[in-house]
Amino acid sequence: MSTYKLTYFNFPALGEPIRFLLSYGGVEFEDNRIEWSNWHQIKGTTPLGQVPILEVDGQVFYQTIPICRFLGSKFNLLGDNEMENYQIDNVVQTITDLRMKIEMVNFDKFSPPNVIEEKRAQLKSESIPFFLKNLEDIASKNDGFLAVKKLSWGDLYFAAMIDYMNWMMKGNLLEDFENLKKVYGNVMEIDGIKSYVEKRPKPQMG
Ligand SMILES: N[C@@H](CCC(=O)N[C@@H](CS)C(=O)NCC(=O)O)C(=O)O
After folding, report:
1. GST C-terminal domain: from which residue to which, for each copy (predicted)?
2. What is the CATH number of the domain that holds 39?
3. Residue 203: what pLDDT?
């Protein structure tokens, strides 16, 4: 049996889709949540000076999306052909683009408060509805899933990232998107995910 060790900080963000996938796969994993205060000692030991990293039988994997796709392959959450795999990659990239737009504002340490407020308002009224409408339309054609009319690693990635984006925006981004709510609900109802969410440590969200 393989061993899995995920190293990331004690918050959801990029670690959470990997935690969701490992929980879905029903494998034991070491959830190594590091402290910011120790980060300077760990940074130099990682391939790009970044986390998450996932060690599988001692082999180091890095870069969140490729790790998720790798686990999706392991746990039968890929599409059935190249077109379906493109569709999954496509929604994952769209979620990532939106996440990065929100992060740029949420973690902006340089702009004055009034500029940050303007940028948050722009996110709420323009970028977020624009990106989510794209995903909502795709989900409306996929029977409660984000792609390929069945559960894929893209759904798990989405649900994990929505929680993180909700936290950054201090609200419920899915409020007006019925099909995306179904996608989220389908993931959160999975036994492995439910039991992980019940027992996960309280994150340090700053
Ligand atoms: N492209 C990488 C980005 C990883 C990344 O930005 N990690 C951040 C935490 S979310 C990090 O390690 N920050 C600490 C640092 O760069 O020193 C991925 O998708 O995994």
Report:
1. 81-205
2. 3.40.30.10
3. 77
Q: In Å, what is the CA distance from 70 to each residue of 48, 73, 83, 153?
A: 19, 5, 17, 10
Residues 25 and 66 in one domain: yes
Q: How far apart are CA 166 and CA 170, in angstroms?
A: 6
Q: What parts of the chain have a pLDDT lower than 50?
A: none
Compute the CA torsion angle 63, 61, 186, 163 (nearest 10 deg): -50
Domains contained in the chain, number: 2
Q: Note down the domain range covering 106.
A: 82-188
- E-strand ranges in 136-205 read none
pLDDT of residue 206: 59
Ligand 1 center from residue 46 Cα (angstroms):
11
Element (H, E) at 121: helix 113-122
| 140 alpha-carbon distance from chain centroid | 21
8 Å CB contact between 68 and 17: yes
Phi/psi of residue 56, each to 5°? -115, 115
Most ligand 1 atoms within 8 A of CB, residue of 50, 61, 168 to mutate: 50
